[in-house]
Amino acid sequence: MAVPQRNIVVRRPRNVVPIRDIERHFHDFAFNWRTASAAGKARDKARDHIKAWFAKGGDGKYEIAVNENGSQLIELDEPIEVDGVRITGLENRRTVTSELDLELVDAWLESLPEDKRLAYSARLYRQVTDTVFEPNELFKLQQEGALSEAAMDSLFTTSESWALCVTKD
User: DSSP states of the chain as a string?
Assistant: First the structure.
């Protein structure tokens, strides 16, 4: 009886991306950025190398500028022309997303005197089959002065994401 063979997949950690020829990856990304599925794998591979390059702070050859939104930009020494479009640089676009953190809301409620905690909890949460948080009531409490703007801001956690984009004429 034959013993079934197991396929073992060994993956390198994501942060161990070789960054040997970043200019080749710039060109691969630029030439493939407008192509749909045919060049998708080549484009995505080049994108991953470039994002890792940005994350490491570049290599000293290109100056990485940071704009008012925290996005990272570089200008290419020579524009790359693709389908009549002159690509002059790349932008690693930063996006920050805020999300209301209910654990922070609960911690805020716990910090209040019992009478306010019970009153506000009754407004913020309503019993359905589960307890449901009412975010609009939280904003109303802030508008009524029960919660300062700074306290309201402290109830949000933030995350950021990056999207690699081309800059063009």
Answer: -PPPPPP------TT----S-HHHHHHHHHHHTT--STTHHHHHHHHHHHHHHHHTT--SSS--EE-TTS-EEEEEEEEEEETTEEEEEEEEEEEEEEEE-HHHHHHHHHTS-HHHHHHHHHHHEEESSSEEE-HHHHHHHHHTTSS-HHHHHTTEEEEEEEEEEEEE-
Structure-block tokens of residue 145? 């002065």
pLDDT in tens, 51-107: 999 999 888 888 899 999 999 999 988 888 877 888 899 999 999 999 999 999 999
- 83 vs 19, more confident: 83
Question: Residue written as tokens 């002065």?
Answer: 145
Q: Which residue has the tokens 């407004």?
A: 123
Compute the average pLDDT of residues 122-127.
Answer: 90
